[in-house]
Amino acid sequence: MSSSLLAMGVFTLVGAITPGPVNVLALRHGAARSRLSSGLYVLGASTSYAAVVWTMGRGAQWLTQALPQLSAAAQWLCAAYLLWLAWRLANAPVGEAQAQDRSGAGHQLAALLQGAAVQTLNPKAWLVALAGVGLFVLPQADAAQALLRFCAISLMACLIGVGCWALMGRLLSGWLRTPQRRRLFHRLLALLLVASVAAMLA
Hints:
The protein is about 85% helix and about 0% strand. The chain has nine helices and no strands. Helix 1 runs parallel beside helix 8 (about 145-170), helix 3 crosses helix 7 and helix 4 packs antiparallel against helix 9. The longest helix has about 30 residues, at about 60-90. The radius of gyration is 18 Å and the shape is elongated. The relative contact order is 0.24.
């Protein structure tokens, strides 16, 4: 059991911490938002991923059969949404850093919802979840209990993985004092987001 849990933990942490659209936006939130807003983004992305794992586990057999027919349309829909986010990011306002740090309740809710939406529309999340379900859930005699364990470990790994990217953004915030540097940062992140979409479609 302990070796299985360790394998689950390594698998989910590697999937959560590798670069992708969710982590690129976590980097931006960490640099440009308050601690609460970036934390809510991480929470939204992490709980959404746990829900993705649960959904894949409950419907793994049906989804495995249906995925070839659904994958192309879903992939292009997700790509369009992520490219729209990249455009918004490249054109984000670069006012005073202090103004960006003052996030009200509306901005905090938006950060939470954006984290959930980006993760839900991230094909990498669905594919990693499907692979994990196939490796760690379906072969188990008690698949229902194995799925609960996998969901819990996935949630923890995502909190750590996406949280590391948000923390990295926070550490960069001191460098991002001028509008010129913030504009460059936003555009570099937008390019990373576009690159992650291109890799997803390749």
